[in-house]
Amino acid sequence: DRAQKYLRRHQQIPNSMDEENSIQRAPSPDLIGKQTVDVPEINHVAEKKLVRKLDLHIIPFIMLLYLFSFLDRVNIGNARLYGMEEDLGLMGNQYQTAVSILFVTYLLAEVPSNLVLKKFTPSRWISFITTSWGIIATLTGVTQSYAGLLVCRLLLGLVEGGLFPGAAVYLTLFYTKRELALRVGYLFISAAIAGAVGGLLAYGIGFMDGVAGQKGWRWILILEGLPSVVLGIATWFLLADSPETAFYLSSEEKHLVNVRRDRQLGQTSSAQNFHRADVYAAFKDWKVYAFCAGQFGTDTVLYGYSTFLPTIIKGLGTWSTAQAQALTIPCYCLGALSYVVAARISDAQQRRGLYTVLFGGISVIGYGILISDSSTGVHYLGCFLVAIGLYVTCGVSELLSFLSLISGHQRFTRGGSNQFSSVALSLVAEQLTTIWKEDHSDWVAIDDWKFIGYHGPFSLPQF
Question: What is d(CA 372, CA 368) in angstroms, rounded to the nearest whole number?
């Protein structure tokens, strides 16, 4: 008897009762490696109802946050057509520098922001950065010099840098991996909508040129920055920090959210805690750097297109500034629609790489049309083709990085580091495209497309 007790204690030999318990409590194959064992069956009707409720309360708010973030980041492109360079005395590549310098602090803020998001809670941290960028974006409209513009852009990047990776990780607290493609994709739909809304607002606000003695570009920045301040204050009260604190969920629904999360492979209670090893592993994982190399091409296109589309379109023909702003709207609307369709199909088939490559090819065709010796109408068609592929390529490929991560803090760290490196490379690309002749300034954006087009194939290594 003493020998048997010794063997059980040191060699984990089960007795008959242990064997019976192990059979009754054996985990399902999906739960291998988990610390918990008994996972209740899910009521799929209740699950569908829960997902609809989450979509109703989370998605519109997250989309609104990213919409205004993207709008305040790229509306400098709309402001350019209303006398910004002349008013501030910008010369040479100073405007391009002002556009690009935002990403210096933007990329430096991404990883630290994700690391502190969980500590300071999403509602408070996102509220702080949203209110801050709203104030900074508004004050950019009253700057009087090139130096003041640079300071505003640096500060804007510092507070905006944490929103996208933080929002994407926030969604993983409520949704399963199979549901994330469409939900994270809504952020890129917001980016497309922001372009359309920005063009529409710039078209209308541009007619305020001269009101109260202020140029139109100032009114664009001021009036588009103020809503972010209001939204940031509302975030403090309306954004739930976790399923447990979501005021719109019942106790049964909160439990169901946790059950859904626990049923995913690799999810354990330990995985939801902070581990320094996860941080170190993120920076030593070669897949992170391979993914960043792929994102180089797509992120460069995203920011180049969103910032310079008004300049591109105005340079294509003899349209007025207001007409050029209006002509940007259909391009962005088509981009948003193409992502909705592609994201739904991608979600249904659980295939990401195929659609990223296919739609990336459509954008490459658009580049070719833009740099070809064609008529104004054909060049404008190229803008539509770029939009069709752009948001699908960026959105679906970005999602791959979050779906490939298992533990909570791997997502918090690697999600930010992926953004960090890809945006850093995009910053280099933006700076390399500042070389042009003054007498060809109307075509600077087309020259930008030439450079970006050559780097499009770099998005392929992620597959």
Answer: 6
pTM to 2 decimals?
A: 0.76
Closest by CA position to 70, among listed 195, 250, 229: 195
- Distance, C-alpha 27 to centroid of its chain: 36
Please say whether the dihedral angle defined by the alpha carbons of residues 203, 209, 211 and 214, taken in this order, is positive or negative: positive
CA torsion 395-401-403-406 (nearest 10°) is -160
For the chain, percent helix, then strand, then coil, each to nearest 5? 80, 0, 20
CA distance 193 to 179: 22
* Residue with token string 């140029």: 215
Crossing angle between the packed helical segments 59-74 and 163-172, to the nearest 10 degrees: 170
**Lowest mean per-residue pLDDT among 4-13, 160-169, 387-396:** 4-13
- Joined together, the tokens standing for residue 340 give 């909705």
The three state secondary structure string of 181-223 is: HHHHHHHHHHHHHHHHHHHHHHHHHHHHCCHHHCCHHHHHHHH
Q: 306-336 pLDDT, tens per residue?
A: 888 998 898 888 888 889 999 999 999 999 9
pLDDT tens digits along 426-460: 444 444 444 333 333 344 344 344 434 434 444 44
pLDDT at position 180 is 78
Handedness of CA 318, 324, 328, 329 (dihedral sign): negative
Q: What is d(CA 167, CA 127) in angstroms, rounded to the nearest whole number?
A: 12
Per-residue pLDDT band for 183 (boundaries 50, 70, 90) equals confident
Rounded to whole angstroms, how far apart are CA atoms 69 and 197? 13
Give Cα 199 distance to the centre of its chain: 20
Q: What is the dihedral of CA 249, 250, 252, 253, to 10 degrees?
A: -10
Instruction: Tell me phi and psi for residue 355, to 5 degrees.
Output: -75, -30
Residue 75, classed as helix, strand or coil, is coil
User: What distance in Å separates the CA atoms of residue 100 and residue 239, rounded to the nearest whole number?
Assistant: 31
Identity of the residue numbered 225: G
Residue type, 309: L
